[in-house]
Amino acid sequence: MYKKYRFVFLLCILFVAACGTSQEAEEQEQIRNELDPARNDQTPESYEEENRLGFVRYNQDQLKNDHENYPNMTMDRHKYADMISRIILRTEGFNEVATLVTDKEVLIAYEKSDELEDATAADIASHTALAIMPRYYEVYVSQNSSLIQDIQSLHNNNTQEATYRNTIASIIEQMKKSPQGINNEEN
């Protein structure tokens, strides 16, 4: 008989422990929900509507216990170069565009049609990059289509830092001989 009570007692302890774990899990879920900036948001009706704006809102109390590791804040330079080139090419008058994004410069070389004025082409190219890139980037453009190959070879080249910087400086000096855009002449 003592064994029966012992077995029932053991089952009761396991039941109470399981209930406690469940309660702790519910409390943790409640904390996560309180920290979720979208907890009061209404569900958007479409993907386009959902991605039209990015918004978060926190207060100090919500962040006190938030020890989340922030994502790596590096930028994908290839994607920026791709975006700049594609936008410029969608403008009538550009035939080919090469864009190189470094850690602090954007180099854009392009081939344009004769109908597109030099200053207008430079303005379109430079303002496209300025609109996309963070403000601290210097933008250099050139209609010298031979620089397209120079930019591409620099991208493909795994040289030492000093050689790399010298090559970029040389390309920038050549680019400065071309119009840099209507409002970007100080570069």
DSSP helical segment count: 7
Outline: elongated
Rounded mean pLDDT score:
78
Distance between the termini: 94 Å
Give the strand order of the largest sheet, numbering strands 1, 2, ... along the chain: 1-2-3
CA-atom Rg in angstroms:
29 Å
| Beta-strand content estimate | 5-15%
Helix content: 40-55%
* Poorly predicted spans: none
Q: Main sheet?
A: 3 strands, mixed
Care to count the β-strands?
3
What is the succession of H and E elements? HHHHEEHEHH
Helix/strand class: mainly alpha
Textual characterization of the structure:
The chain is mostly helical and 187 residues long. It contains 7 helices and 3 strands, in the order H-H-H-H-E-E-H-E-H-H. Strands 1-2-3 form a 3-stranded mixed beta sheet, sandwiched between helices. It starts with a helix and ends in a 12-residue tail after the last helix. The model has no long low-confidence stretch (mean pLDDT 78).
Pick out its properties:
187 residues; mainly alpha; 3-stranded mixed beta sheet; 7 helices; elongated
Write the layout of secondary structure elements.
Blueprint (H helix, E strand, L loop, with lengths): L1 H34 L11 H4 L9 H4 L13 H13 L4 E8 L3 E8 L5 H15 L5 E5 L3 H11 L4 H15 L12
Parallel strand pairs: 2-3
Antiparallel strand pairs: 1-2
The gist of it:
With 187 residues, the protein is mostly helical. It contains seven helices and three strands; from the N terminus they run ααααββαβαα.
